[in-house]
Amino acid sequence: MKLFRRNKKGQQATEAPLPRDEKxxxxxxxxxxxxxxxxxxxxxxxxxxDVLYNPxxxxxYPFFLYCSLLILLYMSFVFHGQRVxxxxxxxxxxxxxxxxxxxxxxxxxxxxxxHGNIQDEITKRGIKIKEWPTPPHIIGNNExxxxx
Length: 148
Fold this sequence. Notes:
By secondary structure, this protein is mainly alpha-helical. The protein has four helices and two strands.
């Protein structure tokens, strides 16, 4: 490929091949003054707010306001739901603790009401009660059974 080289005094350009390590002289970068302004992307225009200056979008202001209101309501409902969920988890944990305590108390009560444990408590406290060797019987009224 042949490139043109200018002489210092403005003479005609002569064709001469450039050595491999020599760069062409003259204007290398494109002219910035003739460049058209670069268009912004759609998302960038929306995020920067340039869209709102457009007169075509003025009629959409109520819709934008409505959408932003819906977004705020949605966010508030999400936060409220998360708070309710945290409270529910706390209540479940508290319920498990109460159930465990109830099981412990009921097992202690069952243990305390056994016949052998009752006798041990009576002797510990020094109460003089005599235990009958035979179990009690239920004395029923025969007349009441006949009426039923």
